[in-house]
UniProtKB/TrEMBL annotation:
InterPro entries: Helicase_ATP-bd (IPR014001), P-loop_NTPase (IPR027417). Residues 1-68 form the Helicase ATP-binding domain. Gene3D superfamilies: P-loop containing nucleotide triphosphate hydrolases. This is Helicase ATP-binding domain-containing protein. It comes from Auricularia subglabra (strain TFB-10046 / SS5) (White-rot fungus). SUPFAM superfamilies: P-loop containing nucleoside triphosphate hydrolases.
Length: 88
């Protein structure tokens, strides 16, 4: 298993806390995967809507501790995004 595994990805990581309590309890145990994968397997969390409190929750739930971290905040401004309001 470990020889074939290159990385673990969690998309929409901002829902870990909410879903772990109400929808998918297994989300609350994602940090336990470290005991199976070891520390050398990258654990990547992706989300477009993480604030400081949510980031802290993700960090704690996944058991990052003092591990190396790389974060990227690209902001929310998108020139190609448009909103359309139409009567239905």
């Amino acid at each position: 298993f470990r020889k074939l595994l290159k990385a673990l990805f969690v998309d929409e990581a901002h829902v870990i806390a909410e879903w772990a309590k109400k929808f998918r309890e297994a989300y609350g145990f994602l940090g336990r995967l470290r005991s199976f994968t070891g520390q050398d397997i990258p654990f990547v969390c992706l989300s477009a809507t993480v604030n400081t409190a949510t980031f802290s929750m993700i960090w704690k739930t996944l058991g990052y501790g003092l591990r190396p971290f790389f974060g990227m905040d690209l902001g929310v401004s998108r020139r190609t995004l448009s909103y359309i309001v139409a009567r239905m």
